[in-house]
Amino acid sequence: VRRLHRERYKKMSWLTPVPDSHKLSDQDITEFVECIIQPVLLAMFSKTGSLEAAQALQNLALMRPELVIPPVLEKTYPALETLTEPHQLTATLSCVIGVARSLVSGG
């Protein structure tokens, strides 16, 4: 996320500018998000907690919200209806909170 921000949005500074040939393309970002999203979605329900998954989803949603938000919401709806697994609801809600800014900003 920092590299993407530095390459596309940060104002000029004394740092050496990134050459155009080495900048991340939209295709690179999309492929990266597609590779990482499945393990992160599985980590939502891990025993170690969902905080790391929520942070990862937040960063991924900043880069490609259209690829991240739908699967998170698809996991949230069944978690709202389950009575036997309350930990699922807390895990999915923490992840929804992580992607909330990308959800309301519209990209």
UniProtKB/TrEMBL annotation:
User: What are the annotated GO cellular component locations?
Assistant: cytosol; nucleus; spermatoproteasome complex
Can you give the residue ranges of the Proteasome activator Blm10 middle HEAT repeats region domain? 1-105
In the UniProt record, the signal sequence range is none
Q: A GO molecular function for this record? A: peptidase activator activity
What processes in GO biological process is this protein linked to?
A: proteasomal ubiquitin-independent protein catabolic process
Q: Which InterPro entries match?
A: Blm10_mid, PSME4
- Protein name per the record: Proteasome activator Blm10 middle HEAT repeats region domain-containing protein
